[in-house]
Amino acid sequence: MKQLQLLLVIGAIIGSFSIASGQETIKEDFKPSTLNQPGQKYPQVNSQGYARFRIIAPAADSVKVSLGLGGRGGTVLHKKEDGSWMGTTEGPMDEGFHYYHLTVDGGTFNDPGTLNFYGSTRWESGIEIPAHDQDFYALKDVPHGQVHKILFPSKVSGPSAVAYVYTPPGYSKDQSKRYPVLYLQHGWGEDETAWSNQGHANLIMDNLIAEGKTEPFLIVMTYGMTNEIKFGGLRDFDITPFQTKLVDELIPYVDENFRTIADREHRAMAGLSMGGMETKMVTLNKPETFSHYALLSGGIYTPEDIKDQSDIKLIFLSCGSKERPESIKNATADLKESGANVVSYISEGTAHEFQTWRRSLKELAPLLFKN
Q: Name one Pfam family in it (predicted).
């Protein structure tokens, strides 16, 4: 089962871009992506989910857009008389956020028309395909929390390490109130900025809290020390340094410097993809630290993994419908039969990508820290 989980994570990490098969008429209702830099008209997306790119490179001999985490898939651009290169994806892309970069005459470059996001162990260009359900992470006229950048002492990362802490609306006003904490991990190739920048975790929480769908809690995001691992090397991954950094350094710092409820009943851990693998390892190694576990496209728990289910408040498993949902469904059934409080979620129409994980956080948050 452990080998199967590793294979699932490896295979899923690679494929975050999907092209639909078949022929259809492309609608010419393209608009600039919401992630474009100010004043930039390209890249563009249309109502069907196609993306169109325009690059100014008059001296180039070839230009290609590589889409998806790791740059798999791609769109060949064609040179125009004015020296620009243009092209449209062969099919619609999945809803939500996607990484991409340019390959110009064999060299790797970012698109100057759009913003950059840390993924694939580098700052990549990003494009947003409008989603039918994007309202849950939209910027709205509601009370907003804050995302704080902190430096905490760390012998592991030495001399200090970076984390981001989301505090919910009203945190700074009521100085007597204390909050539960979710420790939320990114995936391979990403860092502590991913859940705020690509995932919109803060906006998801703001909207859920404003709608009364979840109790407020803190979210802590730090680098999972994953990016030195190459594809095929997961079997050699040692959780010990990150586990020490998280449990022995970061959690005590957060409990000392933020108004937390500093016990395991009010502490959760979740992670996407390789961050889910880390979450499983840490929660099983340190059952005295966390009471809520969540794996987002990050493998499964089995009844054999859980020694004492009475101390676990929640197990949450999720993935996209284009991943391997049968694994999540089977694991959920097995855990329920063994008596665990387990909830699963399948994101319809998405693969190993941030729309899956945005939706997963939206489903997870209301389940955490319920009385």
A: Esterase
Q: Does the structure show a pLDDT above 80 at 54?
A: yes
CA dist 4 and 312 (Å) reads 24
Beta carbons of 172 and 209 less than 8 angstroms apart: no
DSSP state of 260: B
Pairing of strands 116-119, 78-79: unpaired
CATH architecture of 136-367: 3-Layer(aba) Sandwich (3.40)
| The 84-88 sheet, strands edge to edge | 31-32, 44-45, 51-56, 84-88, 78-79
Q: Are 69 and 137 in contact (CB under 8 A)?
A: no
List phi, psi (to 5°) of 162: -105, 140
Q: Which fold has domain 19-130?
A: Immunoglobulin-like (2.60.40)
**pTM value > 0.70:** yes
Q: Which helix (H) or strand (E) holds 356?
A: helix 354-364
Domain boundaries, the chain: 19-130, 136-367
Please give the pLDDT value at position 262. Answer: 97
